[in-house]
Amino acid sequence: MKERPARVRWEQRTQRPLFVLAFAFAVAYAVPIVWPDASRDVERLCTTVEWTVWGAFALDYVIRLLLAERPAEFVRTHWLDLCAVLLPLIQPLRLLRLVSTLLLVGQRARVASQIRLTTYVGGSVVGLLMFGSLAVLSVERNSPNGNIKTLGDAVWWSFTTMTTVGYGDHAPTTGLGRMLAVGLMLSGIALLGVVTANIAAWFIARFEKDDVEERRQTAAIAELTREVRALRAEVAALSPPVRDEVEEQRH
Amino acid sequence: MKERPARVRWEQRTQRPLFVLAFAFAVAYAVPIVWPDASRDVERLCTTVEWTVWGAFALDYVIRLLLAERPAEFVRTHWLDLCAVLLPLIQPLRLLRLVSTLLLVGQRARVASQIRLTTYVGGSVVGLLMFGSLAVLSVERNSPNGNIKTLGDAVWWSFTTMTTVGYGDHAPTTGLGRMLAVGLMLSGIALLGVVTANIAAWFIARFEKDDVEERRQTAAIAELTREVRALRAEVAALSPPVRDEVEEQRH
Amino acid sequence: MKERPARVRWEQRTQRPLFVLAFAFAVAYAVPIVWPDASRDVERLCTTVEWTVWGAFALDYVIRLLLAERPAEFVRTHWLDLCAVLLPLIQPLRLLRLVSTLLLVGQRARVASQIRLTTYVGGSVVGLLMFGSLAVLSVERNSPNGNIKTLGDAVWWSFTTMTTVGYGDHAPTTGLGRMLAVGLMLSGIALLGVVTANIAAWFIARFEKDDVEERRQTAAIAELTREVRALRAEVAALSPPVRDEVEEQRH
Amino acid sequence: MKERPARVRWEQRTQRPLFVLAFAFAVAYAVPIVWPDASRDVERLCTTVEWTVWGAFALDYVIRLLLAERPAEFVRTHWLDLCAVLLPLIQPLRLLRLVSTLLLVGQRARVASQIRLTTYVGGSVVGLLMFGSLAVLSVERNSPNGNIKTLGDAVWWSFTTMTTVGYGDHAPTTGLGRMLAVGLMLSGIALLGVVTANIAAWFIARFEKDDVEERRQTAAIAELTREVRALRAEVAALSPPVRDEVEEQRH
């Protein structure tokens, strides 16, 4: 892409401070939910931190847009970021601020080339677990028929949901809680499936025995490579004399 | 296939009107279930719309059959469509009309070459969710021991079933509801599995790091390609002088 | 294998009668469970049919053993059949007779070369569903805390278990019922997973769009094939003149 | 690796005695949980056996560390073993002793080259089932709201969890029990998934029909191999006369 120089340098330089802000957001989001009896001052502070972090990421989006060589293309390929920036302005709900900031953090994390896939997937799973639990807890705690009343229950529910075990000892009962649960299911099952598959691969890894078809295929390619190598050797053995001959005849 | 010209032109021209009819059917099916206190006139209108849409798709099948160059082969390869056309004539049940129309819409959607795989799978999942929820709701609502009494519960139940989470806070209790659930399970789990796998792939996509064996295999092919390319260069270097030589000797 | 002639002819000739016997067993096993108020005569008849079918399959095993050219090897590679033959002699329990006969039928079905994979997997799933439901029903019906009391509940439970949905509205409570459930889970989940994967593939099939990596790999091979084909054309263009030349020089 | 000789000989010679000790640990861990009314002497004996087995594995780690040619590298690549050795010294809890010894046994089992993948995965699944059940039982039995009170319930719960069926008829209610459950879920689902996939493969194995794409790919490689083989034959047919010619011309 042509826009590399300026934008990429900005993205690399702002990576660490934005990560620190993301962590601050996580704390500011968790505190009023985990500690519901907090004083009004603490609550106000947390809200301020949330708005600040969202603002910093929104500003980061605007700066990246200005630094982009083709702004129209940047807006088109980053429409999800734009939505995340605009959403809390239209509806200043706490939940929308959470989703927006998570989206902006996720989009930025994907840009950071130093982050490895394992870290990204692991971080997403932990983030989904944590924010999914907290959001469902804050929604369900006040529901009269709700059964997710403590943080422990919420985390346990997230875990049994993302592994698709689904005991049903805890389940959201409100419409909003269920919408959050559907989001958590779709993304959480997908990502925790990747984690589980990696754990299975880790158990198996040191045995270096792949499944039959895979092996057969690799064997086919290996056989083919041997074949071509032999062919090449033959052609190599064939070519120099011919050239000599040609040269001899030319002189 | 030889039958392309006439039939394919018909299929392309009727695509949009049939899609509009399919949408009308969705509305006509949903209204009396979501709004059970609707007046008799509304109910009668909905039934008329349902029969009309089914009729249009049945007519479409007949016309495609007449336009087909080999009608016998068309009937054999589209036996599912034939069943869907005949079923509501034998048993004019609402549920059979739903299944028939869904089948006919699905078969036609697959023919439409403009529809992409993502749209098709996504549309099928949304359709299964919506019609599965509505059908189970209409069946379970009147069951004395049933626990699926509102549309929200029905959609939530569909979701927890298709993701195989299965909390068990809501589950069909009647024989017909369970038969619908089995159909939803088999097709829904299969399709939502595709969606979840795609979400996982989307998360991972931008990292372009594949699992080990895949990489090893691609590497093997790449190595082989280099090998062959080198061989070809050698042969290319070898061949012109030989030809020259041959030509020289011929003169 | 050397034992083909005699044994294989026997296996092909007995295939149909044994299939009929397997069907008779299914009926004889189901009747007393589905119809618990049946007269003693019906029950005695069913038991006789069960013993006869098991006996026929046991006899089939003995005849195949006698027809085998290397009996020792046959016993070693068919130890599961031997267990299935001997088990009901040691413990004449109804459940053991069921497991034994199912094993013998399954082993014979795998030998029959006319049966296609889809039929085999589908038949196994239906068989596991049916016999799993019946066996769990017969065990759980008499349990005081049991919640699987009707055939409908048993089939529904089998289905929600094999799809891993597991609502928990019905679950075995006795030790024997749970052991049956574990067997059903391990084999049923494995097989119904194959069925679900096939349904997903059937939905996707007509679009012929594979996932990215698969396509990239196939593309790599295709590119390589083009490369090699070009090389071959070059070599082919190269070789005849050389031969001519050689022949010319020899003359 | 350079450290082979001394360390590998030690590992091979100690394999069997350590396996016997691992079995003794399993018994010593199970007895006080399965038989809660055991006399104090039995309990004290079991604790002694547990400590002895852990000590033996810790000693094994120290000896392997001393035998390693590069101790620093050995510590770095076996940091999990080091944790497992040190943990019970810091916190002499029974549960930590279990996790530590399991980790040490698992790490040693992976080193043993005689153990095949199937045995390793199968052993891990059985081990996870058994120790997971016992640990959760010992934690949940004393919980007032707990519903896992007997060994049968615990094993049944482990099974429904590891298959992700999750009926919810039994589920841990204490924080410690849930943490154990999360560990069991992540590792158990991963490993039992491997087992289920193998069962499915075993059902399908004798039919030797692979899925379409796999076959198409192998076919592509096979076609390519044929192509290359033909090419090689051509080149082979081409090369000897040329050499003869060259030799003739040189003389």
From TrEMBL, chains A, B, C, D:
Write down any Gene Ontology CC term: voltage-gated potassium channel complex
Its primary localisation, in coarse terms, equals membrane
The answer to whether keyword Metal-binding applies is: no
Q: Which residues form a coiled coil?
A: none
Potassium channel domain segment(s): 132-203
Keyword list (alphabetical) reads: Ion channel, Ion transport, Membrane, Transmembrane, Transmembrane helix, Transport
Annotated Gene Ontology MF terms? voltage-gated potassium channel activity
Q: Name one GO biological process term.
A: action potential
| Pfam families registered for this protein in UniProt | Ion_trans_2
Q: What is this protein called?
A: Potassium channel family protein
Q: Which organism is it from?
A: Streptomyces phyllanthi
